[in-house]
Amino acid sequence: MNVVWTRDLSVGIQEIDRQHQDLFHHINGFLDSLQPAPPGDSVAERFDLLEKYVNEHFSAEEGYMNGQLAGYYPDREARRHRGEHETFIRDYREYLTEIMASGLTVQRADEFRSWMRNWWFMHVSGTDRRLGSALRARYPFIK
Ligand SMILES: [Fe+2]
Ligand SMILES: [Fe+2]
């Protein structure tokens, strides 16, 4: 297991928690499939597929921020949140570009895994949980 979902990562909204659990499942399958490889595009398809899942999730969260949370989720927090998503995609693609150019070593794969683990843990436990709190404040009966 590379990225583990625990109750500590719950944002208090079932739909988002379920998305995180599904996404972590995809992430772990992807990380487990990474094997040392020579330069080339052998990993590109898998990177692209995971990026598609990640973007679907980011779009769902960003959809919540658009408008209906006014007064509960400050604009600067929404901007920061979107910015973290953008930075993730940028850095993720940088990893892919570099791996395609130089190949994937055991050490690089480990570094990439710990970057993923840390990013998802930090983002969900901080930024996403604050979005969850705003949603609960705005919609007290939301599950
Ligand atoms: Fe997020
Ligand atoms: Fe999230």
Write the layout of secondary structure elements.
Layout: H1 14-33, H2 44-65, H3 75-102, H4 106-138
Distance between the termini: 28 Å
Report the mean per-residue pLDDT as an integer: 94
- Gyration radius, in Å: 16 Å
Helix run count: 4
Task: Please give the CATH architecture.
Answer: Up-down Bundle
Strand content: under 5%
In helices, the fraction of residues equals: over 70%
Instruction: Characterize the overall form.
Output: elongated
Heteromolecules bound: fe (ii) ion
CATH top level is: Mainly Alpha
- Major sheet: size, sense and barrel closure? none
Question: Low-confidence segments, ≥5 residues, pLDDT <50?
Answer: none
In CATH, the topology is named: Four Helix Bundle (Hemerythrin (Met), subunit A)
The CATH superfamily bears the name: Hemerythrin-like
Number of strands: 0
**Based on helices, strands and strand pairing, what is the structural class?**
mainly alpha
What is the helix/strand order? HHHH
How many discrete structural domains? 1
